[in-house]
């Protein structure tokens, strides 16, 4: 049984509003990195993810919901190792810099407590590298693609158009930035520019993650790649100028 394209699009907008609304319906006030705000928002997005899964279950009838949402048991090589290696290839420049600086795991300057322990124990780490990637990929990748696929949208649409919802969902950071910088004209300008830039690169990543989800049929790969990209951050090549000539050649 298929659903109408209009209903599918409205449902995806609903997923976006549901995911974001918890950020602002919470009684906790403050900036996004305040511990109480982080805890409140993590609870909100987990509730939004659960509700979204119920909506998908109510709309999809001709295929198992676990299959539609990519919740089948992942393969170690196909669904986990290969996607991570592919994603790492996109960061060969920064990874090369880290290698020459001896900052990769098992190298001299790698700090377990600073570089690994904090990922799993601090609220910032749990939000940025665990809860954020898991809930965002589940709602904006699995749930949305499942609904849009049920409406017979093309694969091209699923890869290139569905991530626009993901990009739009990040525009709310403009409000946080605007408040944090004092609600001035300059704050507004900086908030709009940074949010537009964030919209662009989250959409680009969304294309990549959507392709992985459709290609592998499993949500694990997009989640792992999302978490890895968050850990790496935007590529910073400022350290290249301090490298030896041979190292620069290898990085380039």
Automatic annotation (TrEMBL):
Catalytic reactions on record: Hydrolyzes the peptide bond -P2-(S-farnesyl or geranylgeranyl)C-P1'-P2'-P3'-COOH where P1' and P2' are amino acids with aliphatic sidechains and P3' is any C-terminal residue
Keywords noted in UniProt: Endoplasmic reticulum, Hydrolase, Membrane, Protease, Transmembrane, Transmembrane helix
Bilayer disposition of the protein: Multi-pass membrane protein
Residue span, CAAX prenyl protease 2/Lysostaphin resistance protein A-like domain: 124-232
InterPro entries, per database record: Rce1, Rce1/LyrA-like_dom
Keyword DNA-binding in record: no
The EC number(s) this enzyme carries: 3.4.26.1
Localization, UniProt: Endoplasmic reticulum membrane
Transmembrane parts of this sequence: 6-24, 44-60, 80-100, 191-213
Domain of life: Eukaryota
One Pfam short name: Rce1-like
PANTHER family per record: CAAX PRENYL PROTEASE 2, PROTEASE U48 CAAX PRENYL PROTEASE RCE1
Family: Belongs to the peptidase U48 family.
Annotated protein name in UniProt: intramembrane prenyl-peptidase Rce1
Organism: Mucor flavus
